[in-house]
Amino acid sequence: xxxxxxxxxxxxxxxxxxPYPSKASPMSETPPDRLSTNPASSHYDATLLERGIGIRFNxxxxxxxxxxxxxxxxxxxxxxxxxxxxxxxxxxKLSGTVEPYFRDVAAA
Length: 108
Fold this sequence. Notes:
Number of strands: 7
Largest sheet: 4 strands, antiparallel
Radius of gyration: 17 Å
Strand order of the largest sheet: 1-4-5-6
Shape: globular
Order of helices and strands: EHEEEEEEH
Number of helices: 2
Mean pLDDT: 81
Helix content: 10-25%
Number of domains: 1
Distance between the termini: 55 Å
């Protein structure tokens, strides 16, 4: 093991270690596999959220989704207006079919 040597990892910027890139490509018309509205999350992406993402969960439109994962088949939805001790909304994890879409593409 080499200690004290610096390794250039600038080519890995914007990517997570396992297993997929954390960001969707800017030209992509498909939403990312996982996205969160919490800025402290590693799955947060402000540019995608500004563009507008809608979620269909088990065929029904959901507007209170805080985070979703398509490959694992779950969404985290806010439970009322209740907040935890850190000021974040209380959430509940629901399992089912998750279908994210860009609102600007759906409106066109």
